[in-house]
């Protein structure tokens, strides 16, 4: 996330962390939630990698070895571990990304088949592309030459003159902004118009994915960067943690496609929610939307999909380019709406090629402030879950009527739920929490210790439990961020007591 960005009076990003000045990380702390990256921005910025990467190593050892298939099954009935482990010290590298050796046995999912061309390209990139000074000029030249020969032969073939062989490459129709009246409807999506000489192509319905595993009414969790933090949250509320929201680092492709949380949370029996940028936003590998839209990063995303499967995390929730409707991330949609949509479609399709059971989460920021999120919806075939980061700020909700007003306002939580229903999708709330009025970016635009907000969020979750993929509280105490902590330390006693009673 960018450094503390000026927040418009009407809205703001979730409290995410920022790796370094100028970055905004999704509403959780880089340190707190494994959001080691720059969290989101509800109005608070973090420095990305807030806590020493060292934290994760020690915690990984304390958390135990790989997660077995039995651990995965256990979560369906009992959730996640509940004992408090020692909190990792500052001398461990929590940014290190080792793969967990024992994880392959548990949570394994079969990776999707890739084409020979993709495998060859991926092999070249993995063995040459990432190493400075070594470039596969000859192999690449041979591949390009072979492709050109095949293309010429294809163009000369008679099949190219038949309309029935034309591919449907048109972009999906733009999704309309949801209306409250359509809250319970799931209208059919009309096929996008194609070329005049092309027959309409029937788009098969996209099956709805499963919610996160839980033994409760709805899946619930917390943003955390260690097993100890997840367990402390479970003990605080007296119920297991079903999901943990985490963030990759954003300074290189290796940090993105081989992220640290696979090792740190190898023994966590619940579901991981992995927030990943669309491309590195700093350093020598810094990317951009145009290159992403052109498919330049597809091989990287296939590599990430293979990593998920190898870690036994092939069915993870992946928050791809979260909070794109804010102005603090390099992948913000307002920079190039067309390129943003194509970039998301490319990344989603590429990840699913090698990790077909992954659940892609398209997460916007509540109430903007920078761009109309629904106008750049990538399309149902590229999205499994429609999420929103929604904090008690810009505006806060001191009363039930004010909560209802902001919830139903543009890009509010209620609108997201309606939009998910219209498109036959699950919805998620990966980041939410109260916002302190002291030493935060929001200041008096935050609701402070606000039990009303806690109660109303709980009511929303209960009423829509059937389509709630998961929700996760952002327990943060970083000065300049949301400072939403309910435990360790408890800065909001009224909200904390009510949360404990409800959950």
From TrEMBL:
GO molecular function terms listed in the Swiss-Prot or TrEMBL record: mannan endo-1,4-beta-mannosidase activity
Transmembrane feature ranges: none
Ranges of residues in domain GH26: 171-503
InterPro entries the record matches: GH, GH26_dom, Glyco_hydro_26
Region (Disordered): 1-116, 170-201
GO biological process: substituted mannan metabolic process
PROSITE patterns xref list: GH26 (PS51764)
Sorted UniProt keywords: Glycosidase, Hydrolase
Bias type Basic and acidic residues, positions: 36-60, 89-99
Biased composition (Gly residues): 103-114
Family of the protein in this entry: Belongs to the glycosyl hydrolase 26 family.
The protein's name: GH26 domain-containing protein
């Amino acid at each position: 996330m960018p450094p503390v960005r000026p927040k418009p009076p009407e809205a703001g990003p979730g409290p995410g962390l920022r790796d370094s000045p100028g970055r905004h990380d999704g509403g959780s702390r880089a340190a707190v939630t494994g959001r080691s990256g720059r969290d989101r921005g509800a109005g608070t910025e973090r420095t990305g990698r807030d806590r020493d990467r060292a934290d994760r190593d020690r915690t990984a050892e304390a958390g135990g070895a790989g997660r077995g298939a039995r651990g995965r099954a256990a979560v369906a009935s009992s959730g996640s571990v509940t004992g408090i482990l020692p909190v990792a010290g500052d001398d461990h590298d929590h940014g290190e990304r080792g793969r967990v050796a024992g994880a392959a046995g548990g949570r394994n999912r079969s990776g999707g088949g890739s084409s020979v061309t993709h495998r060859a390209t991926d092999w070249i990139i993995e063995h040459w592309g990432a190493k400075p000074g070594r470039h596969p000029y000859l192999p690449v030249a041979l591949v390009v030459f072979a492709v050109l020969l095949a293309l010429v032969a294809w163009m000369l073939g008679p099949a190219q003159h038949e309309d029935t062989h034309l591919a449907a490459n048109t972009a999906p129709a733009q999704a309309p902004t949801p209306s409250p009246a359509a809250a319970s409807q799931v209208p059919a999506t009309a096929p996008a118009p194609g070329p005049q000489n092309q027959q309409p192509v029937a788009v098969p319905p996209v099956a709805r994915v499963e919610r996160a595993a839980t033994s409760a009414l709805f899946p619930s969790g917390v943003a955390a960067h260690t097993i100890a933090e997840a367990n402390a949250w479970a003990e605080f509320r007296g119920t297991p943690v079903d999901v943990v929201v985490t963030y990759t680092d954003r300074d290189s492709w290796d940090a993105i496609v081989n992220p640290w949380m696979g090792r740190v949370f190898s023994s966590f029996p619940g579901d991981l929610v992995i927030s990943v940028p669309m491309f590195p936003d700093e350093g020598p590998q810094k990317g951009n939307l145009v290159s992403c839209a052109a498919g330049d990063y597809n091989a990287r995303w296939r590599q990430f999909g293979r990593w998920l499967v190898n870690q036994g995390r092939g069915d993870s929730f992946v928050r791809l380019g979260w909070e794109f409707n804010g102005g603090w991330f390099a992948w913000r949609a307002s920079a190039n709406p067309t390129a943003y949509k194509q970039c998301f479609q490319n990344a989603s399709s590429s990840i699913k090629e090698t990790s077909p059971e992954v659940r892609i989460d398209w997460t916007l920021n509540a109430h903007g402030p920078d761009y109309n999120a629904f106008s750049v919806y990538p399309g149902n075939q590229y999205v499994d879950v429609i999420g929103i980061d929604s904090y008690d700020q810009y505006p806060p909700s001191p009363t039930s009527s004010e909560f209802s007003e902001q919830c139903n306002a543009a890009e509010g939580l209620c609108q997201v739920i309606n939009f998910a229903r219209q498109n036959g999708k699950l919805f998620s709330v990966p980041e939410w929490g109260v916002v302190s009025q002291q030493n935060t970016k929001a200041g008096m635009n935050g609701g402070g210790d606000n039990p009303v907000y806690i109660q109303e969020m709980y009511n929303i979750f209960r009423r829509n439990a059937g389509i709630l993929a998961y929700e996760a509280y952002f327990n943060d105490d970083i000065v300049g961020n949301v400072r939403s902590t309910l435990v360790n330390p408890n800065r909001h006693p009224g909200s904390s007591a009510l949360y404990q009673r409800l959950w």
